[in-house]
């Protein structure tokens, strides 16, 4: 039940952000804009390259390819087809289902177009890149650590995954396509789905 408890805790920031939108919408919007204005003043050539690269790690095209590769590894190398199925369902329901649906429900506009360094057309809240990074990278690392030698280096894996997740989320603000609350809400929901999927995986592994 620890994973269920962690999932419930993970979703709390999302709930708090929604409450801010309801009870203090103007103040929240001003705060978001002030964070964006502060971040983009530090733009430079090297940072532009780094954060453009990091944001591609959660682009839809890259994520689809990464998922397919992971599924092949789990099925062909580990011979764990049920793990592969749960992994696929978790990612599809979470990232493509819940996150995309919430964007269309809330229909929050992105930061002003003149602030953007990359092109985006969907709505802003919650951040899909942040959701994907918070769910897919920890979940992938968890499975690989469980069935490969990576399990001997938990701290190193944790540091690498954390750096990737934080860099992807920050890149969305730096590139001018998301507000801070979009990113935090994406993280919140992404980690919640990570723990829910991990709960199901561990239940399955107890009987295989």
Your description of this structure?
The chain is mainly alpha-helical and 208 residues long. The chain is built from nine helices and no strands. The longest helix has 26 residues, at 81-106. The chain is globular, with a radius of gyration of 18 Å. The model has no long low-confidence stretch (mean pLDDT 92).
Task: Reconstruct the topology from this structure.
Elements: H1 2-10, H2 12-23, H3 25-40, H4 45-56, H5 60-77, H6 81-106, H7 128-147, H8 154-174, H9 180-205
Oligomeric state of the chains present here:
single chain
Counted by DSSP, the helix tally is: 9
Structural class: mainly alpha
Distance between the termini: 19 Å
Rg calculated over all Cα atoms: 18 Å
**Nearest-integer average pLDDT:** 92
**Runs with pLDDT <50, length 5+?**
none
- Describe the sheet with the most strands: none
The total count of strands amounts to 0
Q: From N to C, what is the helix and strand string?
A: HHHHHHHHH
């Amino acid at each position: 039940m620890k994973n269920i408890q962690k999932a419930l805790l993970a979703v709390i920031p999302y709930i708090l952000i929604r409450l801010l939108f309801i009870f203090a919408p103007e103040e929240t919007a001003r705060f978001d804009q002030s964070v964006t204005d502060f971040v983009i003043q530090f733009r430079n050539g090297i940072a532009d390259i780094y954060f453009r690269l990091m944001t591609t790690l959660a682009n839809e095209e890259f994520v689809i390819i990464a998922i397919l590769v992971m599924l092949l590894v789990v099925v062909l190398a580990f011979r764990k087809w049920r793990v592969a199925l749960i992994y696929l369902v978790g990612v599809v329901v979470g990232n493509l289902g819940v996150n995309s649906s919430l964007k269309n429900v809330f229909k929050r506009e992105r930061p002003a177009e003149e602030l953007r360094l990359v092109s985006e057309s969907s709505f802003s809240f919650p951040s899909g890149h942040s959701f994907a990074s918070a769910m897919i990278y920890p979940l992938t690392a968890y499975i690989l650590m469980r069935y490969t030698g990576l399990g001997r280096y938990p701290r190193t894996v944790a540091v690498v995954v954390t750096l990737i997740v934080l860099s992807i989320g920050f890149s969305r603000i730096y590139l001018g396509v998301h507000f801070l609350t979009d990113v935090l809400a994406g993280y919140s929901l992404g980690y919640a789905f990570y723990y829910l999927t991990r709960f199901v995986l561990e239940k399955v592994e107890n009987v295989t």
